[in-house]
TrEMBL record:
InterPro entries assigned to the protein according to its UniProt record, in alphabetical order: HATPase_C_sf, HATPase_dom, PPM-type-like_dom_sf, PPM-type_phosphatase-like_dom, Ptase_RsbX
CDD domains: HATPase_RsbT-like
Protein name, per record: TorS-related protein
Organism name: Streptomyces xanthochromogenes
One Pfam short name: HATPase_c_2
PPM-type phosphatase domain segment(s): 150-349
């Protein structure tokens, strides 16, 4: 079954592992939950789950981090967190999620209880490489159910992380559906922008790209990229790629300028998408759109050059069976570098 949901998200902060890691993440999660209007009971559950997740990372993982952010759908707001680490990974995920499996020094509720507190929970671990875990927490109705119909059903998710030493990321991504008036499944447009350099000026360029993407009436990759080009004039400019997924036609149209990487990933590997040299907002050559067939049961991955292209889906068995957010987190863990802003967006189950 194809979902048409795309959650809006607002990245709040990354927390790097350290002595005050769990306490800082817990305090920020509790404050964020209260700020968006979760009940005191639900906010306490969010804080408990974040503490357990962060403590688990701190005690048992290498190079761990936690992303805390707001997600929005149909006028409702929830809290989402993502943990990423570089090992050692879990050899038996079901055992780690079993009741009573909480490790010494945690709150004792275990990751299984975290999964039950969350309205959506997903975890993927590769022994010897690392683990990524994602959880969503929405307001609850009087009967105890989440107020959104299908938590975690978003067909697209992305992650951005600023270069070490910066608090804002110069990369951004956006996804929107296109009403064509025909066909059973919606057309989906995806954009990723890597603002030149890093810091506030790069973030300004990528924010302008997102605004142009969301407001333009253009629906072709070339048309959207042209609108973004005009919006980025007067900024630093950036590398930008736009993809159009046409499920009923079984094809993807892709147009990119600069160092944004795109891949179609299937069970048999990945296929690279082509971008041309240039700077959107400054020096942009004549645009060219490339057409590729959509892989069965696959995904679209787009990322900035803050990730190397040397990742291999075969090194992350089972990844395609997980949510777009966990896929994005694993790619960030596998391929991101600390010396640049990093961003990755994943679309799956759109065809």
């Amino acid at each position: 079954m194809t979902t048409t949901t795309v959650l809006a998200c607002e990245d709040v902060a990354w927390f790097r592992d350290g002595e005050s890691f769990a306490a800082a993440a817990r305090g920020a999660a509790a404050a964020l939950a209260r700020r968006i209007g979760l009940s005191s009971h639900r906010a306490a559950e969010v804080a408990l789950a974040v503490t357990e997740a962060a403590t688990n990372v701190h005690r048992h993982a290498v190079d761990g981090a936690l992303l805390l952010r707001v997600v929005r759908e149909a006028g409702e707001a929830g809290v989402e967190f993502l943990t990423v680490d570089s090992g050692p990974g879990m050899t038996d995920v079901p055992a780690a999620l079993a009741d009573g499996a909480s490790s010494a020094g945690t709150l004792g509720i275990g990751l299984g209880a975290v999964s039950r507190l969350a309205d959506h929970f997903d975890l993927h671990s590769v022994p010897g490489r690392g683990t990524v875990m994602a959880a969503q927490f929405w307001p609850r109705a009087l009967d105890g159910r989440a107020v959104v119909a299908s938590p975690g059903a978003s067909l697209a998710a992305g992650v951005t992380r600023p270069i070490s030493g910066e608090s804002v990321c110069g990369d951004a991504w956006a996804v929107r559906g296109v009403d064509t008036g025909a066909g059973d499944r919606p057309v989906v447009l995806v954009m990723l922008c890597d603002g030149l350099g890093h810091g506030p000026l790069a973030a300004r360029a990528s924010a302008a790209a997102v605004k142009a993407f969301e407001t333009t009436s253009e629906t072709s990759p070339e048309g959207v990229l042209g609108a973004v080009h005009r919006a980025l004039q007067g900024t630093r400019g950036g590398a930008v790629a736009v993809a159009r997924i046409e499920p009923d036609a079984g094809r993807l149209l892709y147009c990119g300028i600069g160092n944004v990487s795109g891949f179609l990933v299937g069970e048999d590997g990945r296929r690279a998408l082509i971008s041309a040299p240039g700077i959107v907002g400054a020096h942009m050559r004549r645009l060219r759109t490339f057409e590729e067939p959509l892989p069965g049961h696959g995904a679209l991955v787009m990322h900035s050059d803050g990730l190397t292209e040397r990742w291999n889906p075969a090194a992350m068995p089972g990844l395609l069976h997980h949510s777009p957010l966990v896929m994005a987190g694993q790619l960030l863990r596998e391929a991101a570098v600390r010396r640049d802003d990093a961003s990755v967006v994943v679309v799956k189950e759109a065809w």
